[in-house]
User: Which sequence fits this backbone?
């Protein structure tokens, strides 16, 4: 558990996040290099109290295609935690550069519904550094409490910092077969303009999402959609049926190259009351995002 707390008076601006991220890869003032399981991580918690802005929630609902029903969509909790995650990830004491890292999983455990206008206190810390075949995994954990101090939710963002590790030579297993999938239960359409709108609402203006040139700079044929946009937009197929107390788990696959049409495939588990939603490429069938919505 972190022993120090940094209390923010306001979330860092998008310009500050971008500038600090790019600074982290400069050779003179960059980071220390490859991580090891024993590498020390920032021993502090970042804290921020926010009033959930109804207007911003409305803009978020519009850009991810959800109805503005007077409650906060579950993936909006990730948007609230994002600036605190970046404050830690981009800090001088963080031992690796954030640029080039990959958001691979996200888990939100919501204990009750959140409504616009509420005051929430967020506390974010980092830990659980561990090896993976493609690099090092690390968890950013955010706890949400309300004005009374009661726990409202927790959110874990798992990032992959790409590098060689002792597991890099291990076999990856057979590649999943690709092929045109069957008819989807629903479709998502997304383009660069919509993703730039999402960037403005979410505060995540990573260049990889903002323009084709930004995407090409990181090895993609064009810009890519935020995985968090896809994860939020997928919830359209269960809108009105997400429990008050819920676990929303997301595993990110191949990025969505813009513009795109994505198929949503829905499977319900009658025994648990949960739902699995998979966003797939309509030509090759590989998953972009796999999500489960399970009653807590």
Assistant:
């Amino acid at each position: 558990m972190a022993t120090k707390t940094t209390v923010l008076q306001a979330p860092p601006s998008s310009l500050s996040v971008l500038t600090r991220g790019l600074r982290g890869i400069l050779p003179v003032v960059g980071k220390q290099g490859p991580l090891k399981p024993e590498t020390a991580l920032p021993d502090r918690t970042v804290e921020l109290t926010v009033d959930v802005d109804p207007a911003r929630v409305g803009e978020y609902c519009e850009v991810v295609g959800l109805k503005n029903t007077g409650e906060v969509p579950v993936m909006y909790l990730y948007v609230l935690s994002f600036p605190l995650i970046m404050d830690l990830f981009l800090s001088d004491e963080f031992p690796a550069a954030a640029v080039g890292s990959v958001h691979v999983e996200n888990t939100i455990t919501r204990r009750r519904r959140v409504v616009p206008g509420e005051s929430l206190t967020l506390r974010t810390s980092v830990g659980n550094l561990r090896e993976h075949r493609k690099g090092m995994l690390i968890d950013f954990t955010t706890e949400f409490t309300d004005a009374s101090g009661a726990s409202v939710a927790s959110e874990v963002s798992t990032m992959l910092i790409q590098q060689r590790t002792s597991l890099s030579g291990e076999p990856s297993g057979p590649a999943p077969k690709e092929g045109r999938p069957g008819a989807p239960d629903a479709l998502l359409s997304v383009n660069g303009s919509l993703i730039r709108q999402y960037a403005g609402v979410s505060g995540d203006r990573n260049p990889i999402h903002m323009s084709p040139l930004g995407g090409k700079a990181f090895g993609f044929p064009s810009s890519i959609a935020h995985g968090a946009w896809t994860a939020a937009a997928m919830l359209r197929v269960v809108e009105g049926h997400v429990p008050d107390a819920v676990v929303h788990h997301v595993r990110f696959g191949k990025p969505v190259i813009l513009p795109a049409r994505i198929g949503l495939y829905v499977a319900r588990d009658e025994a648990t009351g949960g739902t699995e939603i998979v966003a797939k490429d309509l030509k090759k069938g590989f998953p972009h995002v796999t999500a489960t919505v399970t009653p807590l």
Notes: The longest strand covers residues 119-132.
